[in-house]
């Protein structure tokens, strides 16, 4: 657990068993949550964020 300006956060390391690639996530989720679950949530969130970004870019939108 780390703390910066009164905000506590955790750094979660997760090694993908299929690729062997190490992923590192900064989170405020409790450490009782499995690192694999945190990884899945972050990957799904990233997919959603990229979809919004691509849609905004493709349609030349200035606001989402």
Q: What structural class do helix, strand and pairing data support? A: alpha+beta
- Main-sheet strand order equals 1-2-3
Binned, the helix content reads 25-40%
Rg over CA atoms, rounded to whole Å, is 15 Å
Mean pLDDT: 84
What is the approximate shape?
flat
The unreliable regions are none
Largest sheet: 3 strands, antiparallel
Pattern of helices and strands? EEEH
Distance between the termini: 34 Å
Number of H- or I-type helical stretches: 1
Portion in strands? 25-35%
Q: Tally the beta strands.
A: 3
Describe this structure in words.
38% of the residues lie in helices and 28% in strands. The chain has 64 residues and is an alpha+beta fold. The longest helix has 24 residues. It starts with a strand and ends in a 6-residue tail after the last helix.
Which short descriptors sum up this protein?
three-stranded antiparallel beta sheet, flat
């Amino acid at each position: 657990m780390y703390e910066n300006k009164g905000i506590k956060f955790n750094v979660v390391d997760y090694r993908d068993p299929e690729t062997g690639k190490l992923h590192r996530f900064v989170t405020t989720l409790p450490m009782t949550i499995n690192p694999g679950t945190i990884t899945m949530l972050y990957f799904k969130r990233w997919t959603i964020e990229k979809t919004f970004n691509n849609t905004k870019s493709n349609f030349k939108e200035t606001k989402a």
